[in-house]
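Progress note, sequence design subtask.
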C-alpha cells in the first residue's frame, strides 16, 4: 500500500492567498503610475506645455491661442490625424514645427514680443488661427 500525502485545508488556503497576492502585485505593476497633468486629449501622455493645440479631422481645435509677451512659452501640437502630416507655422517668425504624420505630439518653444501672429499648417491652408501675445 502506498501512502498519499494530500495537502491540508490550511495548506491550500496559504497557497491560494499567496497566489492571489502575487496576482495582485503583477496587476499593480502593469498599471499607470503617471502623476502628471495631461495637457489634453490624446489618450496617451503628452509632453508638458503651457497650451495644447490639437489637429483632428484636418482642423485645429482652436483658432485662437494666447501667450505672454517676452516670456518663454511652450505650445504642444497634438496631431490626432493618423497618417496625416501637420505642422504649426507661426507666420513672420522663426517659430515652426516640422511636418510630422500623426498620431504624434511636438513641442514648440516660443518667446515673442507683444502682437498678433497668424498661424497655419503649411499643408492645409484651412488650418489657420491667431496667436495673441500680450
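Output:
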Amino acid at each position: 500500500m502506498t501512502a498519499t500525502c494530500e495537502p491540508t485545508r490550511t495548506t491550500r488556503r496559504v497557497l491560494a492567498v499567496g497566489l492571489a497576492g502575487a496576482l495582485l502585485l503583477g496587476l499593480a505593476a502593469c498599471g499607470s503610475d503617471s502623476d502628471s497633468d495631461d495637457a489634453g486629449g490624446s489618450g496617451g501622455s503628452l509632453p508638458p506645455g503651457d497650451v495644447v493645440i490639437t489637429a483632428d479631422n484636418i482642423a485645429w481645435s482652436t483658432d485662437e491661442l494666447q501667450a505672454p509677451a517676452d516670456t518663454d512659452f511652450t505650445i504642444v501640437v497634438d496631431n490626432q490625424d493618423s497618417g496625416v502630416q501637420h505642422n504649426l507655422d507661426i507666420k513672420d517668425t522663426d517659430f515652426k514645427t516640422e511636418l510630422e504624420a500623426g498620431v504624434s505630439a511636438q513641442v514648440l518653444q516660443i518667446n515673442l514680443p507683444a502682437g498678433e501672429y497668424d498661424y497655419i499648417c503649411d499643408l492645409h491652408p484651412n488650418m489657420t488661427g491667431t496667436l495673441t501675445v500680450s
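Helices lie at 9-30. Work on this subtask will continue into the next period as scheduled.
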